[in-house]
Design a protein that fits this description.
With 333 residues, this protein is α/β, with parallel strands linked by helices. Helices cover 38% and strands 15% of the residues.
């Protein structure tokens, strides 16, 4: 950067004087195509169940998921991320419902694809916590420790199950070592050559996940914590190692989760790796904006857009956000 600029020859406020000028020199742009919309699935028909911990977010039965998909297409949102609220009687210690080709995730995927085809993408979460009775992301040994290699076998079968149902992007969020490579090998062998993997590469053991766990019904089930496989919030170099491993194993894109408290990780990932980087604006981040706006902390839409813009400015190719539809409507004018 030149050090020759001096006042008054250079006045940085000149380009800020008018709205048209601010628009013209704006460095970072948001559009509806930057968003992936997370949606929660529940059993039944004609059902909308508001999630108390997530104002404005609901669980939808299959027909409602299809309607949300049509809404997303009209708004210009390119992809949905689906998460099931598995009934209690279908949860088990081994999470075997994840392998059922007629589970909520697979039925919702097929329903959206039957209705909209390739007009919209479907991202499916690979992890066992929506299916286990203990709320952990994998299989436990007799001491309650999540076993890495035994879990991998189930995760690969879960990923194949979702790809067979029509998923476009497989998103392993479990944080088991080696899962991206194992899933990529299985997808290739099954001729799912064009199914992408978006790896939750830097997923932290965060305090911001609480409302999500309520939405998928695992919050009250969780025994212990997830610190033996999710990352320590104090670490950044470790995140870069995780990302490098996942890319080497065949990830097409990577995710940083949560988003706003980890903008430094997003920036480093974008700077150091030549792959698309996504952020998940998680449930706690979303809820804080909602509650804060309601309490008068600031204008809802201004808070929403400023935080979404921060992800793009840090280097994100896209953002998973519960604000997707609201933000898209605002951007579409």
């Amino acid at each position: 950067m030149s050090q020759d600029a001096t006042f008054p020859r250079s006045r940085l406020r000149r380009t800020r004087t008018h709205g048209w000028s601010r628009d013209m020199v704006r460095e970072t742009q948001l559009s509806p195509s930057d968003f992936i919309w997370p949606l929660f699935i529940t059993e039944g028909s004609g059902i909308e169940e508001p999630v108390a911990a997530l104002p404005g977010v609901s669980r939808w039965s299959m027909d409602g998921i299809v309607e949300r998909a049509r809404e997303a297409r009209e708004l210009g949102i390119p992809c949905l991320a689906l998460f099931p609220n598995t009934p209690a009687d279908k949860r088990s210690d081994d999470g075997k419902e994840a392998l059922n080709p007629d589970n909520l995730m697979c039925r919702a995927t097929r329903a959206v694809k039957d209705a909209l085809g390739d007009d919209i993408g479907i991202l499916t979460d690979v992890a066992l916590d929506p299916y286990t009775s203990h709320g952990q992301d994998g299989l436990l040994d007799d001491k309650g420790y999540v076993e890495n290699d035994r879990t991998l076998d189930v995760l690969t079968k879960q990923a194949l199950n979702q790809a067979n149902a029509g998923a476009d992007i497989i998103a392993p969020s479990d944080m088991m070592d080696g899962r991206v490579g194992a899933i990529r090998d299985v997808l290739e062998l099954a001729h799912h050559h064009n199914v992408q993997i978006m790896a939750y590469s830097a997923k932290y053991a965060s305090a911001f996940y609480g409302p999500f766990r309520d939405a998928v019904g695992s919050g009250g089930l969780l025994k212990g914590d997830k610190k033996t496989y999710q990352m320590d919030p104090a670490n950044s170099d470790e995140a870069i190692r995780e990302i490098a491993f996942d890319i080497a194993e065949g990830a097409d894109s990577i995710m940083v989760k949560p988003g706003l408290a980890y903008l430094d990780i997003i920036y480093r990932a974008k700077s150091e790796f030549n792959v698309p980087v996504f952020a998940y604006q998680v449930s706690g981040e979303y809820a804080l904006i909602k509650v804060g706006a309601e309490a008068g902390v600031g204008d809802h839409d201004a808070l929403m857009m400023e935080k979404l813009l921060a992800f793009k400015r840090a280097g994100c190719s896209g953002i998973l956000t519960y604000f997707a539809a609201d933000a898209a409507r605002l951007l579409n004018g």
